[in-house]
Specification:
With 689 residues, the chain is an alpha+beta fold. Helix content is 29%, strand content 29%. The protein contains 17 helices and 35 strands.
């Protein structure tokens, strides 16, 4: 009789389990099995053609190693994490070897002469793994592209994407499949949809956007209410289950946004042409249509496929200007939508949503992608307008699907959930906030949310605002995709999903398909939904890591121009080995190490106070404190900035320091793409949505 291991996988008496292979720098492998307390050790000779990060099936030995760790042998690679690699070509007479440039041990690839694609000896290239069968001593590969040494920035961005497991291009067979897709709007398809082409419709997006995946329509109804349509690009009309295009989209699961480029989930013909809701073009959409009163009461909702014709493409700045000046194109509908959005927002916070603000930091780049300036942008009414209507659509779709049952059981569906804060993080944060006079009620979830909102309101404009906002967000769980719904704590929603961005997120494509099945009463239950949700959450995390790495590279590249110069900064993080400082002017984070501080005093970490404290001088460096730093090193290869504390600056946490910090917090930021890193408030905020 077969039994199940902790991860839920069937196994025989030999214990075959599935997990992710992690290879250490010394070459030893460890298979991480979800649900198991300890990893399974695998020796290099037993990798069986698996690479670091691959999902593998491993046969576990019954005995234990000397350190009482389970050992095993990999019997199969279930899923490759990465198929493209960066490295160098080493030419032989009639063939070549590809030598991967990786911290993790990866075998050399055999490259046949007809697979070199013009690459020469010792050239830096991107190579793709073609196969590695049992009969092959080495992996077989081909050169995908040659990296030119003169474009250091381009090479760095490509390395970041490949390290995160995102391919740089689409295979020819995928592009061939896309080429067959019809742009033509057919009469047969129109008859299946509600026609909204004669209703005022527009898009609102960033100035540099090309993939417009959402639009709003609005008209007055005879009963005095407003009909507002939230129209989303109908990607699922073009991307069909089981196609090669669908397979590739699922593997990527998300677009990746780096400072100078987008690595898209879908080929450009789909993302920027077929599905993009460009103005003055008929487009297929999936819509959520609402009847809403002027008091923002939703009286009726409808979900289904539509066809629209966008009348105008707005940028966020244009809409913000119209809202502020109360004049301009389509001023009345825009002001109405803004008024309704504000009422939706107030109602959300009244019902328990947490009012974390967001700030976007963008690089200004020259024609070669080098950073020449930085712009810090606050989320304004134009952004909040779109956000509220997208939230309304997402929540409505999730609520509708949640009511569909098969044999009294909910159907598999990719909910977007957000768990309550972790007590281990929340309690020390509440104690820290109390030092500034902010009291937290921790007796239940609603009380915690209410305490957060009161603190976030009261802290505005005060010196401690930055640190309490950042630390508050870090107490939060990360939002993930799962078929086991527990609600979305941060938004205060019982049911929530991602429906509004199918061009750049695969879970939205899954939501569209399931929603259409529900509407047609033709359900095809996906037994692998949990696995798909986990994959999408993992890819989302990898994309965020790549985005942080890309923005960190730009920070270092930018600050190389300021070596030896001094700046005011805010301490954004503390650790036993030093403290992080984010410059006020440029929002670029670097580290001041304990080693460099040793000439002044011996500093130790006070975890309860989020501070480094000098044993002799009692000098304290606490999160949120303002300090003066000098830029002493900028290492592009390590994406690392080193700062030095300028000891002539105001010392301690006295009133002068606090006053100056408050003054800087009110100053206007310098006038690019967001350094979305863990210590950056914008990125932390987006990770909980």
């Amino acid at each position: 009789m077969q039994k199940k291991n902790k991860a839920g996988k069937k196994s025989s008496q030999t214990d075959i389990v599935q997990g992710k292979l992690d290879i250490s720098k010394n070459g030893m492998g460890y298979v991480i099995v979800e649900g198991n307390d300890k990893d399974i050790m695998v020796r290099p000779n037993d990798f069986n053609r698996a690479f670091h990060g691959d999902m593998v099936r491993v046969q576990v030995n019954k005995g234990l190693s000397k350190d009482k760790r389970q050992e095993g042998k990999i019997i199969e690679v279930a899923e490759r994490r990465q198929t493209e690699f960066i490295g160098n070509i080493q030419m032989s007479k009639n063939f070549a070897f590809f030598i991967p440039a990786s911290e993790k041990p990866i075998p050399d690839f055999y490259i046949a002469a007809d697979k070199l694609n013009g690459a020469g000896d010792n050239e830096r290239v991107v190579a793709k793994l073609l196969s590695w069968d049992k009969a092959e001593k080495k992996p077989l590969g081909e050169v995908v592209s040659i990296l030119k040494a003169e474009d250091e920035n381009d090479m760095a961005m490509k390395e970041i994407l490949i390290e995160a497991g995102f391919p740089l291009s689409f295979d020819n067979d995928v592009l061939a499949e896309v080429k067959k897709l019809q742009k033509h709007i057919s009469r047969e398809e129109i008859n299946k949809r509600k026609d909204y082409r004669d209703i005022l419709t527009f898009t609102i997006d960033p100035v540099d956007a090309k993939d417009f995946d959402d639009a709003l329509s609005i008209r007055n109804l005879d009963n005095g209410n407003y009909e507002i349509g939230i129209h989303i690009a109908d990607v699922s009309h073009f991307v069909k289950p089981g196609t090669l295009l669908d397979k590739i989209a699922y593997e990527r699961a998300t677009s990746v946004y780096l400072p100078d480029r987008v690595n898209p989930m879908l080929p450009e013909k789909i993302s920027n042409e077929l599905c993009s809701l460009r103005p003055h073009e008929d487009k297929y959409t999936f819509s959520a249509i609402f009847q809403i009163t002027n008091r923002a009461e939703v009286k009726h909702s409808w979900l289904g496929r539509t066809i629209i014709h966008s009348n105008h493409r707005f940028t966020y700045d244009e809409v913000q200007d119209i809202i502020e000046k109360k004049e301009g194109l389509h001023v009345k509908p825009l002001l109405l939508l803004n008024d309704l959005a504000k009422k939706f927002r107030a109602e959300r916070f009244k019902n328990g949503a947490i009012n974390f603000s967001s700030q976007e930091v963008k690089f200004q780049l020259d024609e070669k992608g080098k950073p020449i300036g930085i712009v810090v942008k606050e989320s304004k009414d134009a952004h909040k307008l779109i956000e509220e209507f997208m939230l309304l659509a997402n929540r409505t779709v999730a609520t509708y699907v949640s009511k569909i049952k098969v044999n009294k059981e909910p159907i598999p569906f990719p909910y977007r959930i957000h768990d309550t804060p972790d007590d281990e993080k929340l309690k020390p944060f509440a104690a820290f906030a109390k030092k500034f006079g902010y009291t937290f009620d921790l007796h239940d979830e609603a009380a915690v949310a209410s305490s957060f909102n009161k603190m976030l309101k009261d802290v505005q404009g005060k010196p401690e605002q930055h640190v309490l906002e950042q630390l508050g967000i870090r107490t939060m769980s990360k939002a993930i995709y799962t078929s086991s719904n527990i609600g979305h704590y941060g938004l205060g929603f019982e049911y929530y999903c991602h429906f509004t961005s199918p061009i750049r997120r695969y879970p939205d494509v899954m939501v569209h398909r399931i929603l259409q099945q529900c509407l047609e009463k033709d359900l095809k239950l996906d037994k692998k939904m949990d696995e798909r949700c986990k994959h999408c959450s993992d890819r989302e995390r990898k994309a965020m890591e790549a985005e942080r790495a890309g923005n960190k590279y730009k920070q270092v590249e930018f600050m190389k121009n300021y070596l030896g110069e001094e700046f005011d900064g805010i301490i954004s993080g503390v650790a036993s080995f030093g403290f992080f400082v984010e410059t006020v002017t440029h929002k670029c984070e670097g580290m001041v190490t304990v080693r460099d501080l040793s000439e002044y005093d011996d500093f130790r970490l006070d975890e309860a106070d989020y501070a480094l404290v000098g044993l002799n001088t009692k000098q304290k460096f606490r999160m949120g404190d303002m300090v003066r730093i000098k830029v002493v090193a900028a290492n592009l290869s390590k994406r690392q900035l080193d700062y030095e504390w300028v000891t002539t600056a105001v010392k301690g946490n006295n009133q002068k320091t606090r006053a100056r910090s408050k003054e800087i917090a009110k100053s206007k930021p310098v006038s690019g793409r967001a350094p979305k890193k863990e210590n950056n408030l914008y990125n932390c905020y987006t990770s909980i949505k």
